[in-house]
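Record type: monomer structure entry
Structure origin: computed from sequence
Chain ID: A
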Amino acid sequence: MKNKITIILIALSVISCKKENKTEQNMAINYPETQKDSTVDVYFGDSIQDPYRWLEDDNSQETKDWVIAQNKVTFDYLDKIPFRKQIKERMEKLWNYEKISAPFTKGDFTYFFKNDGLQNQSTLYRKDKNGKDEVFLDPNTFSKDGTTSLGGINFSKDGSLVAYAISEGGSDWRKVIVLKTATKEIVGDTLVDVKFSGISWYKNEGFYYSSYDKPKGSELSAKTDQHKLYFHKLNTAQTEDKVVFGLNEKRRYVGGYLTDDENYLIISAANSTSGNELYYKDLSSPNSKIVNIVNNFDSDSDVIDNNGTKFYVITNYNAPNKRVVTFDLSDSKMNSWVDFIPETENVLSVSTGAGYIFADYMKDAVSIIKQYDYNGKLVRDIELPGIGSAGGFGGEKEETTLYYSFTNYTTPGTIYSYNPKTGESVEYQKPKVDFKSNDFESKQVFYTSKDGTKIPMIITYKKETELNGKNPTILYGYGGFNISLTPSFSIANAVWMENGGVYAVANLRGGGEYGKKWHDAGTQLKKQNVFDDFIAAAEYLIKEKYTSSDYLAIKGGSNGGLLVGATMTQRPDLMKVAIPQVGVLDMLRYHTFTAGAGWAYDYGTAEQSQEMFNYLKGYSPVHNVKANTEYPATMVTTGDHDDRVVPAHSFKFAAELQAKQTGNNPRLIRIDVNAGHGAGKSTEAVINEQVDIQAFTLFNMGYKELK
């Protein structure tokens, strides 16, 4: 398949400080008054009040005024933290190092991304055959404040054309612009209103892309439910683009991509984030029909390559940990699939390049890489630089050198060149970060959750850290959507650990660390398993004296924001600080916004059944904030342009916390303006957010000054 170019955005965590005598540092906070209305929803005869429904209207002046008022209170609070400025200076200094991506060749040029250090967005450079560098595309010029970012890029097979997508204000809606690479001349009109889409070229004639019809009402919060695959012919109006799939077949997520020989269009269609149908269309025959390969949503399958009519597919059909199968298009029925790389006890993902298939196995959340030829023969086990996360090994079939990255919690992300013939790895690009990795250690432990399940967690800290229960600790988790948390380095975490902090990541059920069964064990009526796993992780850290409740912060984003919200409402005594970021917090209405209905595989919906409604109501953070309960110091974070998890979730949760305030712990909400769910956020905005989280966390743990 074509090498997929991905812009990797690394979300950095917080730095820390010298421990001081712990004191209560409560500030008097006058929260804005949040009006209540009389909205009531009835589910299975049960009346549920929704007094902050009006905050769902992101277009209303009342909501905008509320955002301004809340931000004023929050930033007034943060401004009074004595070491906040010092944290920012330290953060910026450490962040300011050159970052360069692996190179990739397209046509006559070799391209690579580079960030000089504190640039808001990484710049795409290219090098000609004489070795001369030039800027090809600079996203820093897209907007003055860095809020417009590069949201995707794809070159035609010969490299003569490129289509790139831009995101404005962090929104998932994109614009697509086409250039001639030789001259950088714009070709045709800019496409608009493109969402959740790849870009797949066909013979320089045009490309396939996906989108929804623009919804009625707010484009940032209204429901989008029918995804369609289009073909855009160059130099024609977007209004003339033909729907290839999705006009008669209502699917929430549709994607199209071509085989490397450009003979086949592969279509993946789904109604949720788990399970997909699979189709193909023979592009060598002008009047060919779309042919179904997988006709249900019970498994996940993707075509990774082909050799003529022989297809290679990675699937979890009859293989919860995934396998690679082959079949011929003359008989593509699922019961005719033949194992190429059989399922093992470890979860599999794959990439292709240089005429080989690379199997990336995940064992207890760390990488093991094996190289296969196209006869299914194991060529070698690839020796990695250490224990951690490896990714890459992708490229065109004719490539002679491939690249991969390696990182873990103590090793900055380093790029290696790889010779697929000899198996030799050579360090290609190592970031110049002033961090002494040998002074730190990561320890993987397996603790017991409430129902007896063993859960892995990696705890990273400075060697010889005294386990006295007084170490400031961040416990991070996600636990959903088959997503795995694998070891990765961040500058901010490094400084946190340099100053005595502990950083712990729990691999909760609901994630993908142990395949489909692990994922399913944290979905729908089993979702409480995820929260129990997280609570047990906190209890383990306290029991083993890594920290104590007075020095523990829990943090997570998106589905991880739900994790934090549910954990802090179920066990408010367990932690000192809670940071729910861009969280799914209203579990009775999440599916009514944007593409939220597609998350029902993980969550279920309130309309699904009375049992499911009662279950969701039982843990929904917005509906479980109780009066006369002292919750931990909480800073909810969100973006006003988040159209993935709409900010109304965070607005309502913060309003509930403030209305039912007991005790002196702050309950603040920090709302980024012209920002979305996180992708494409400017360096300045990311640093500012991390500084504020850091300052808030440490201040509420009783720290008064930095080291």
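Annotation 1: The two ends are 51 Å apart (CA to CA).
Annotation 2: The longest helix spans residues 61-79.
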